[in-house]
Design brief:
Helix content: 55-70%
Number of domains: 2
Low-confidence stretches: none
Number of helices: 8
Structural class: mainly alpha
Shape: elongated
Number of strands: 2
Length: about 160
């Protein structure tokens, strides 16, 4: 890189650092806005080419106690059960947050996901209600896992 007369490399570095900080702030603001608009961590990560951990750290930095979903802890403790179906886990969280019918038809996130995971023969009415919420959220049933668990994917 050539430096113009009178400009030191240090001054150029400081200017570039300021631009980088501004771009990072704008990126982080956009990521926060995307989560508030209902995009999943996976979708944001794919769009920004950032890791799930980085996206989560950026979102957590913006979260304030009054923005936290009171049901967040309810689904956080179940995440490990979805290690082979992270997209399904993200879909359940997404639908629970964006689709009011999911929150009004079920007593909590766990009961909603139990119905969305179940085969219709187990409790047809509740399963149909959960499936409708998932479709309203833009998801479709995917292939069963090796263990026979349902998976949900973006339609």
């Amino acid at each position: 890189m050539k430096f113009s007369a009178g400009r030191s490399p240090l001054a150029v570095a400081a200017q570039l650092a300021a631009k980088t900080r501004q771009a990072t702030t704008e990126r982080d603001d956009a990521i926060h806005a995307a989560t508030r608009s209902g995009f999943t961590l996976r979708e944001i990560g794919e769009a920004t080419e950032l890791s799930h951990t980085t996206v989560k750290r950026i979102i957590d930095r913006y979260s304030t106690p009054d923005e936290e979903d009171p049901m967040k802890d309810e689904w956080t403790k179940y995440k490990s059960r979805y290690s082979q179906r992270l997209e399904t886990f993200d879909a359940y969280v997404d639908v629970w947050q964006r689709i009011p019918k999911a929150r009004s038809a079920f007593s909590g996130w766990a009961s909603f996901t139990q119905a969305a995971n179940a085969e219709p023969a187990q409790n047809a009415e509740r399963v149909r209600a959960a499936e409708e919420c998932m479709r309203d959220g833009g998801y479709r049933l995917g292939a069963l896992t090796k263990r026979g668990a349902r998976s949900w994917n973006r339609a």
